[in-house]
Design brief:
Protein name: malate dehydrogenase
Strand content: 15-25%
Order of helices and strands: EHEHEHEHEHEHEEHHHEEEH
CATH architecture of the largest domain: Alpha-Beta Complex
Helix content: 40-55%
Domain Lactate/malate dehydrogenase N-terminal: 10-161
Shape: globular
CATH class of the largest domain: Alpha Beta
Structural class: alpha/beta
Number of helices: 10
Number of domains: 2
GO molecular function: L-malate dehydrogenase (NAD+) activity
Pfam families: Ldh_1_C (PF02866), Ldh_1_N (PF00056)
Radius of gyration: 19 Å
Binding site for substrate: 97, 103, 135, 169
Distance between the termini: 55 Å
Largest sheet: 6 strands, parallel
Length: 331
């Protein structure tokens, strides 16, 4: 072939025994960019997940690490062992949203989980790229930032909220309507990663898809509420796990491709940002060997998008960010 071998990286998945964690780990175990895959969780089955993955005939070395809910010190030690030497850490840990569960309920459980895991990252692999899937992402990413600041190893270029699923859904839904291949469609999704904070820029699709005002409104609403669509369709049996695992894998792959030296890699992500007056914001980000190389400004918005951004996205997102920052301040 003559091509030099793809550079491979050490990856850790935290919360690897869950509904997102298992399929995400499966996909990563098949990745040409992964050298070593450590899967961590606080349930013993994760050891079996590691063994199961280790039987797949790829060069990836897989190992499970089980924390102990009854022994915080032992759990923290195991977490550090799982994280040691990691280049990329993906965090789907936490509880999924169930029918009738408010975002406040979700926050109260997952905030503490994410804070503890990020402390482990600060201790074991402070230079790793940190990709957060745990909901509510709008608040858990600011939590991670504050924990890393407290630990003295915060690098805003290395912290990402994985909002890729919003882009994946937008491409799928609009491509179906336009009857084109979703892979041929480019859509920017800005704002945050829940409900009204998700703002797909349907006026700026490439190639251009002509949509009526009614279609834009309906599609925007569907993309914003797609998570609820899955929760309801699973009738209490889970949330968006498979599509989120795919989206998480896709984003982690882009991060690793950029780490390996590939240029021109752009993904939407929820990151520390100066595009607006908010400290965190989702937009297109150019990835590089050091993480976020640059935040890509979005183009002029339509009247509909401008109103949504000012009246809904920013208002809700400001509350979410504040909630995350205050959580760590009160630890």
């Amino acid at each position: 072939m003559g091509n030099k071998e793809t550079k491979r990286f050490n990856v850790a998945v935290l919360g690897a025994a869950g509904g997102i964690g298992q399929p995400l780990s499966l996909l990563l175990a098949t990745s040409p960019y992964v050298q070593r895959l450590h899967v961590y969780d606080v349930v013993p089955v994760v050891n079996g997940v590691g063994v199961d993955l280790s039987h797949i005939n790829t060069p990836v070395q897989c190992k499970g690490f089980a924390g102990d809910l009854k022994d915080a010190e032992a759990s923290a030690k195991t977490l550090r062992e799982a994280l040691a030497g990691s280049d990329v850490v993906v965090i789907p840990a936490g509880v999924p949203r169930k029918p009738g569960m408010t975002r406040a309920d979700l926050f109260n459980v997952n905030a503490g989980i994410v804070a503890g895991l990020v402390e482990g990252i600060a201790d074991a692999c402070p230079k790793a790229m940190v990709c957060i899937i745990s909901n509510p992402v709008n608040a858990t990413v600011p939590i991670a930032a504050e924990v890393l600041k407290k630990k003295g190893c915060y690098d805003p270029k290395r912290l990402f909220g994985v909002s890729t699923l919003d882009v994946v859904r937008a491409r799928k839904f609009i491509a179906e309507k336009a009857q084109i291949d979703p892979e041929d469609l480019d859509i920017t999704v800005i704002g945050g990663h829940s409900g009204v904070t998700i703002l797909p820029l349907l006026s700026q699709t490439s190639p251009k898809v002509e949509l009526s005002d009614e279609e834009i409104e309906a599609l925007t609403s569907r993309i914003q509420n797609a998570g609820t669509e899955v929760v309801e369709a699973k009738a209490g049996g889970g949330s968006a796990t498979l599509s989120m695992a795919y989206a998480g894998y896709r984003f982690a792959t882009s991060v690793m491709a950029a780490l390996s030296g590939k240029s021109g890699i752009v993904e939407c992500a929820y990151v520390p940002s100066d595009l607006t007056d908010l400290s965190f914001f989702a937009s297109k980000v150019e990835l590089g060997p050091e993480g976020a190389k640059s935040i890509v400004p979005f183009k002029d918005l339509s009247k509909f998008e401008t109103e949504k951004l000012e009246n809904e996205v920013k208002v809700e997102l400001a509350k979410n960010i504040k909630q995350g920052v205050e959580f760590v301040a009160n630890l």
